[in-house]
Amino acid sequence: MEATTFVLFGATGDLAKRKIYPALFNLFIDQKLPQFFSVIGLGRRELSNKAFQSNVEQSLRMFSRREATDPIIVEQFLSAFRYSVLDVGHKEDYQTLLQLIEQKEEELQVAPNRMFYLSVGPEFFETITANIHESGLGTTSGWRRLVIEKPFGHDLQSARELNKNLSKAFTEEEIFRIDHYLGKPMVQKLEVLQKSNPVLKALWDNRYIANVQITANEIVGVEERAGYYDHVGAVRDMFQNHMLQLLMMLTIHLPNNSTVDNVRYKKKLVMDSLETLRKEDVGSHVIRGQYAAGTIQGEPVVGYTSEPNIAATSRNDTFIAAKLQIDDYFWRGVPFYIRTGKRMKDKSTRIVIEFKEPLKQSGANDDNALPNLLVFEISPNEGIVLQLNSRDPLHKGEFKPLNIDFHESQGNVPEAYENLICDALQGDSTFFAHWDEVELSWQWVQPILEAYEENTVPLHLYEAGTYGPVESDELLKQDGYHWWFDE
Ligand code: NAD
């Protein structure tokens, strides 16, 4: 792998501490970092290199997948870390940074390849990239890459504006937009599972699939993110990005020798084929919910509007369920039900594929038969379950559903950020969100945002510790289906 300087804006922040340093450490142990690798952490407050390294070490102890117990390995890892003070608005700080980077590149005699990772609030993205451009930090004979975190904009217009400004300093090929769901190992496996297994490939369309259910349930409430979340809601925080990315990754049909360009092209095709939702149809296709007081795992919890720093009158959404249709050759007629919410009964991200029921169609008389299901468990545990019908030897050979269940053992699975940072270092953007996808996703949700804003769709309260408003069940019931695994 090519020598790289990893320039981290927001080096004292929460994301850096919980995800980025542990990911780098695990890549280091797996020998997946470049031989010449240096990290320059940036933050507003004064910090010595030593104090910075000690903060990084602490984060490894708290959050690393592998224990940071071998002092020699930890020391080797930390020796790559330097710190520099930078306030995003101070142009002179970028000059200091440039000198530091050039000095380091010269000292190590390495190619000037620079990766700028913006682990800061989105309000700083434009200022930072403009300053990288103007200061000369982005002028290098090596490569330069920009890594940014969601949110990419607040709606269609602001996303376009943001992208226009970012592209003044970086080309699309140089921008790596992290959607950490794309880094989850099971999501990265979807394309391979589908295209390299004839048994799945043969069934992957509307001839055999009755419906698809994509769920991302969280147990937690708004936590300390009130200021951010109350302006965003489930539709922007989860649906526009993570949930639509899962839909794309599941439904693309790829050739065996697919490339990054194939993946991007096919994802765009899916978004292009998604049936447009008109504002007047939001009420019949989308369920907006907000959690009320309830009980989570035996403990009473307050409702959303009683949470600290949330106004009692807030109509923000903490739950969304939607029905989508892809109007293309493969998926025409298959409903995709997508839901995500906070304060749900359990924590789980999964995709359930429900197959059509030839038994019922052929008039076979067995009440115990269930539809075949293929379940991709994405988190917290990773696994695949296949539900089949079999015979029950104890009950006169009646039909009995059985589950073929595979789960990855915990601890063996790399974290999403490990996969994504490793890919970005290698310049592989397969599992990053391309601008076309981001734009088309905003375009699709825009009528929902407007309907919410204008309050033309109801806000359904649901008890914390349930699976969301009953109206979300109705969404499937009217098509003759139900959410699987709500128990
Ligand atoms: P944070 O508030 O913990 O950290 C922000 C960092 O920005 C801090 O290091 C702070 O010092 C720095 N900063 C703030 N103002 C600055 C200025 N004027 N000049 C220089 N530095 C400044 O935020 P975070 O949780 O680490 O999130 C960072 C980004 O990642 C955000 O865009 C967030 O939406 C996104 N994100 C975070 C998470 C997460 O798990 N924390 C998950 C997904 C996305």
TrEMBL record:
Its EC number is 1.1.1.49. Pathway: Carbohydrate degradation; pentose phosphate pathway; D-ribulose 5-phosphate from D-glucose 6-phosphate (oxidative stage): step 1/3. Pfam families: G6PD_C, G6PD_N. It comes from the Bacteria. The keyword NADP applies. GO terms for biological process: glucose metabolic process; pentose-phosphate shunt, oxidative branch. Substrate binds at residues 180, 184, 218, 237, 342, 347. GO terms for cellular component: cytosol. Residues 7-188 form the Glucose-6-phosphate dehydrogenase NAD-binding domain. Residues 192-484 form the Glucose-6-phosphate dehydrogenase C-terminal domain. One of its GO terms (molecular function) is NADP binding. It catalyses: D-glucose 6-phosphate + NADP(+) = 6-phospho-D-glucono-1,5-lactone + NADPH + H(+). NADP(+) binds at residues 10-17, 44, 87-88, 150. Keywords: Carbohydrate metabolism, Glucose metabolism, NADP, Oxidoreductase. The active site is at residue 242. Belongs to the glucose-6-phosphate dehydrogenase family. PANTHER family: GLUCOSE-6-PHOSPHATE 1-DEHYDROGENASE (PTHR23429:SF0), GLUCOSE-6-PHOSPHATE 1-DEHYDROGENASE G6PD (PTHR23429). Catalyzes the oxidation of glucose 6-phosphate to 6-phosphogluconolactone. This is Glucose-6-phosphate 1-dehydrogenase. It comes from Paenibacillus antarcticus. The gene is zwf.
